[in-house]
Predict the 3D structure of the following.
Amino acid sequence: MEAPELPVLDAYAHRDALHLIAWCDECRRWHFHDLMPKSGPVAAFCHSPQSAYRPAGYVLRLMGPAPRWINQDLQRQSRGTQKGPYDLVQRRSW
Ligand SMILES: [Zn+2]
């Protein structure tokens, strides 16, 4: 166990095979990280200077390939209309 005080974000492999994506509760948007970063904390990619993740970063926990609804949400984000996984718990059925 290392840095147990850091938040852990579920991360998914993007279908471009180059990035991991993780939902940020602080920014309410998806953050992109390089695929397979070093284990341990990564720097928060938050845009908000008030983000609680910014000082120390967070830990990415790889969950597997991004399911289709995440890809769809990413497309909405790129168009500025993403909703985010507000109902992530209910939809976590893959
Ligand atoms: Zn963020």
